[in-house]
Amino acid sequence: MSALVNLLLGGVFHGAVLFLVAGGLQLVFGVQKILNLACGSFYALGAYFGITLVTASLAVGVPGVLLLPELLLAGLIMAAIGPPNERLLRTTYDRDESFQLLLTFALLLMFQDVFRFVWGANPRSLDTGYLVYGKLSAGDLSVPVYNLLVIASALAAAIGIGAFLRRSNYGRLLRATAENRTMAEALGVNVRSVYSVVFTLGTLLGTIGGALVIPTAAASLEMSVDVVIEAFAVVVIGGLGSMAGALVGSLLVGLISAASLVFYPEFEIPAIYLIVIAVLLLRPSGLLGKPAP
Question: Are 149 and 68 in contact (CB under 8 A)?
Fold first, then answer.
């Protein structure tokens, strides 16, 4: 029973981090209709800068118990790259989707070179800090408190985004712009400002996701591509443009990955692809996506 609970918690933790990246991807696509391949680079940027910030703070005597706030701050600071990247993407808004994909893929490649130049080619990790909050133990079951804090943070983000989109006036503007950009512009909505806010919020979710994962995993040049693959699996499973679908898809992918690593590690990626294929065959719009008219 303890092994099963550990497996479930590990899968939920992975799904929680993945939701932040996939949620940002969903938000940008839902409003701007851009499949942002660079979301993986924002995730990696949050991870690298999180390591730098925490290492520097420990060197000057900042208490280790502030690990989580520092990582959240690292993600918040790195979200500043959102607006300039959005301005670059403006040149593709009225062009074919292939231009958007090529430009965001080019950003992904350029960011990898930036990471290599600034942080080097070798993986980087935090040597200490993961267990600074201790563990919760019950019999054979032992769960790091940090994992629970990350899960709670992702859940709070999901609830907050849902409330923002559905209950705030600005959230209604975002949904109106997503439904009909031309009509929104005709009614006086500053669509450029809306797009900038949405892209920055999507960037913020990615950088925070990367920052939160580094106490449990090393930051590497490959992580940006790896998370893009999983994020796209999430949006296909959950449905493009559906935040609720992103949450369900993230949990499903996280649990599949955790189970595969325990029982048959070589089957981790094929198992995710099989789920994606099944969803595409049985429900092409995704589990919670809207069918195309």
Answer: yes
